[in-house]
Amino acid sequence: MMTPGFARHRRVWPSAAAVAAVRGWSGSQLHRTPADDRNGRDGRSAWMDDGRRNGRGDSSSSVFALSSGGCRAGVAVLRVSGPHAAAALLRMTGARALPRPRHAALRRIVNPLSGEALDRGLVLWFPGPNSFTGEDSCEFQVHGGPAVVSAVLRALGEIEGLRPAEAGDFTKRAFQNGRLELTEVEGLGDLIHAETEAQRRQALRQMEGDLGRLYSAWSDRLKQCLAHVEAYIDFSEDDNIEDGVLQRVEAEVLRLSAEVSAHLRDGRQGERLRSGLQVVIAGPTNAGKSSLLNALCQRPAAIVSPIAGTTRDVVETALDLAGYPIVLSDTAGLRPSLDPVEQEGIRRARQRLRQADIAVVVLDATEVARGSRDLEATLLARAQSILDDGDFATPATPALVPLPPEEGGQASEHRECIVVLNKVDLLQRDAAEARIGQRAMPGVCAVSCQTEEGLDEFLRLLKEKVEKMCGDPLSGNASLTQARHRTLLGGCAAALSDFLATSGPAMDAVLGAEHLRSAMRQLGRITGRVGAEDILDVIFRDFCIGK
Ligand SMILES: Nc1nc2c(ncn2[C@@H]2O[C@H](COP(=O)(O)OP(=O)(O)OP(=O)(O)O)[C@@H](O)[C@H]2O)c(=O)[nH]1
Ligand SMILES: [K+]
Ligand SMILES: [Mg+2]
């Protein structure tokens, strides 16, 4: 996988404001390690301890949790779900009758054992199956102080049949009770973690079932095809079947196959938007790469100095660029070096550049201009020498270039490049240099990190490219957002191709039917209609406790 999976811990950074459109984006996706992937966020292995690994919930027990955030707040929301929810609500309020379903009622909240008053708050009763989880549920809205919350949690824990929920327990129950499809579960998880506008839009759309509906519609069409092929197998010898059935199936599978392929050929828009675009700053030493990073995030994130070779490690910062999430990386300056530490820095820089969705090549404008008769040629040669390793398009040929295959790339995966000529404040105004100053070359931004001249124009260009690569999450079909979707859809597309390869006048209908069944299975696994057990822990792992 090209982009690392990402840990969900919060890292809220101060706002950036090089232009109003840029804000600090907390970049929760950064730095997920393989260990994080295996374990829950807090190192606990999720779902290990009570035999629910298979995705079968212990529906005989009820779970409770604080569903609002853990910090001090005016109101805290605690939820209970499961068969003991009614009893919990009655005992926690000392009442004989449940409140009207889905209507808030003001009640004293008491400790069920001692009868001691804990707080006064709103309670809500959500009888199953029309609740979020599909089970009987109730909610306590109490004052949000830590002592109140822990007293209510303690009291809930004393009620028989109730146990504390684990991350994702409530959503898992909703899935198991058929209230949500798997893609909707994923959308909900993404919505909870969304940090920029575009991410929120995409997640909401997926949570509301747009992606699942697309796949279900394909699955229904496949089912119809399969029914016709099976009818042909069963009845064709008796001549009870109308002519041309298989041809019509073939035509439909051809259409489906084209639609699935087009959906897969989306330049990884949805996945990029979900995880944040990788924007990598690279270039020779002392060009002002770290200065650019600092100017964009409006804080001294990377060390700037006149000493060439200052930056060694990759310095990352997350930004919200007009609603789109980007992860901006500053890298070591590229130059021949004998220093093993610098060599390692350069290796890391090149590696990061290969993972970039957008490369920002920073060059020192005074160096490019110095003594060069053919400004464009010099510029291109310098930019290209930086990019060569990363297999990018040059700025003069801004054609979109496919990722190398080892990055899991397909021809539709686009990478882009922007050349930044920095330090224009130092330019003498001779002819060549004036041309840089006049910004005469497309795809090339002339800036000064010192005076911030030209940075708005750079951000405008960057935003344009980011928007193009992520797309508008609300237009067209919903985008697939996860590698899981891509893998399964790839399997579906392959099975459809297999079907088409066997079709024709001498079609083996039995084999063809098997290919269609295989294609349907792959689709079904995306929405969770088929065999979801083995992926459930992966999907629910990133949820919060209480959701
Ligand atoms: N006059 C002027 N100086 C700049 C500008 N941008 C950066 N500098 C200076 O150029 C020097 C190098 O800047 P850095 O940001 O450290 O450059 P770098 O590309 O990160 O350098 P390495 O990490 O060593 O590869 C510093 O002394 C900066 O103050 C600019 O726009 N104008
Ligand atoms: K430097
Ligand atoms: Mg640097």
Automatic annotation (TrEMBL):
Record keyword Nucleotide-binding present: yes
Cellular component terms per the entry's GO annotation: mitochondrion
Gene Ontology molecular-function annotations: GTP binding; GTPase activity
Keywords, sorted A to Z: GTP-binding, Hydrolase, Mitochondrion, Nucleotide-binding, Transit peptide, tRNA processing
Compositionally biased intervals (Basic and acidic residues): 33-56
Recorded catalytic activity of this chain's protein: GTP + H2O = GDP + phosphate + H(+)
Keyword Transferase: no
Subcellular location: Mitochondrion
Sequence similarity: Belongs to the TRAFAC class TrmE-Era-EngA-EngB-Septin-like GTPase superfamily. TrmE GTPase family.
Protein's job: GTPase component of the GTPBP3-MTO1 complex that catalyzes the 5-taurinomethyluridine (taum(5)U) modification at the 34th wobble position (U34) of mitochondrial tRNAs (mt-tRNAs), which plays a role in mt-tRNA decoding and mitochondrial translation. Taum(5)U formation on mammalian mt-tRNA requires the presence of both GTPBP3-mediated GTPase activity and MTO1 catalytic activity.
Protein name: 5-taurinomethyluridine-[tRNA] synthase subunit GTPB3, mitochondrial
Species in which this protein is naturally found: Petromyzon marinus (Sea lamprey)
